[in-house]
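Newbie here. two chains, one complex. Structure please?
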Amino acid sequence: MILSRRKIHYYASVALACTLPILFLLGILCRPPIPIVDESADKLFAIANFSTTPLTPEQSETLSGGGTQIQVDIATTANGATVLEIQPVQAIQFSDVLVYWQAGDRPTETESAETESAETASTDTDALIIADTAVLLGQLSGTSRRRFSLPPDIQGQDGNLILYSRGRNTLIVILPLTLSAN
Amino acid sequence: MGVGYQSIQWNRQKIIYDAILFITVGLYIWGFMAVTQHMGSDLDIRGVRIRAYGSAAFVLLHVILSIGPLSRLNPKFLPLLFNRRHMGVTMFFLALIHVAGLRLTMLRDAVSVVGATLPRFPWEFDGALTWYHDFGNLDPLVSLFVGNSHYDNFIRFPFEFLGVIALIILFLMAVTSHDFWLANLTAPIWKGLHMGVYLAYGLLVGHVVLGALQTNRHPVLTIAVFIGLVWIVGVHLIAGGRELRRDGDALKPTPSGYVHVGQVSDIPENRAKVVTFAGERVAIFKYDGKISAVSNVCQHQNGPLGEGKIVDGCITCPWHGYQYLPESGASPPPFHEKIPTFEVKLKGDRILVYKTPNPPGTPVTPAVITEA
């Protein structure tokens, strides 16, 4: 190196020697505490529809379509409520996945639209839209098993489960399902 | 050297160097994944993959930054310097994969033709940008900069921002690493640009300390980062300080304009003595019963010619083997690099070099050593 570059190199080394240890020590000493998850978080998981206690399913089937595969169980809780449990077999690669139930035949584009972005839906759901009568059950994420309460008026009906990404305004898949009566 | 353009002048040493480099990086990433998966089954495996590449780049940066000062302290490390740029470009790509992920679907498809199946990793996986910023309704790049807006808070500062600045510096270095840019920018400017690596290193230490070390609190990781920091800063301070002290011992010319640089017996045959005067280092070579003085600065990457030796009658740079004729400072034909020469004369055993350099490539009659 030439003399001027050797000087720059040395002063750069001095600057790093002065700043980096301080940065390192401050970074370690000021680390904020990370709360540990304990039983108090169970309520939050329940609100978020996570299935925490196993139930014996009365109806169980695996639904697949549009590259998505989910395990669907219908069971009764200790207090007599009928619930639907859904667990994706593989993580669903969409954000903010909402689960709708819509009674009747497979929805068509003639039904009223909730969103204008239905045109961006995946392959077999192109041009399909969510009807105003669809019931929002809750949300899914990753491969977590989620539990959704089934309103009595939709139990025993034929219809379709609709997975919809709120984050991407995209219909992910529509899967036919009959909700057995309690 | 400057003849017949070839994008990369491959030779056996470079191929071996690169093969060792790629195998080592591959083993590191594989080992990182194997060890972390062995240590815990509940890990976010995608995050581990991202950190495998990120840590590979960070470790490789430590290796790269160690080579220069170690070569100054001990010539045994010079062979590592020879192809350091390939290491730097590899490091940039590891950092880029850490950020942007990898999609080598063509490779997987090609293998599947013969009935084999490649695992998704390491051929396909999401980088940090995709995995942490591409599941919302914001563009990932926008999310990267606004996802954490604590720009006024030290400990919650968006460490990703530090990584982005460092990646831009590393990108500029990678794209200008080729000799084409070295020749067109000139070595001093090129060197100045590539000194940005020290800023990039500082930013990346911040990226790791405010990022990975905040959530991963295993003491081994903390200690490893600290040792790496102390090592890099320490070895650069030692080597840089030693060089600056040498420059401080500049020789003064006599009233006649000549500088007494030492005795003939000080210099081993086919080697040089390096002294500082006239604002730069000068290499005085002894060879075939003659003494010649040239600038110590190689035209290629400003390597220290005086730490090289005479090979086949030419001064040979220890960094990349560039050669110059000692009598003229010019590279032997067909090459055309030139360095400044100095007038030399002997008074008994004393070597006197004129204080002002001649223009690069100026032929100078060597001082002939006469036996006493």
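Moderator note: Chain B touches chain A through 44 residues (CB under 8 Å). The longest strand of chain B covers residues 280-287. Thread marked as resolved.
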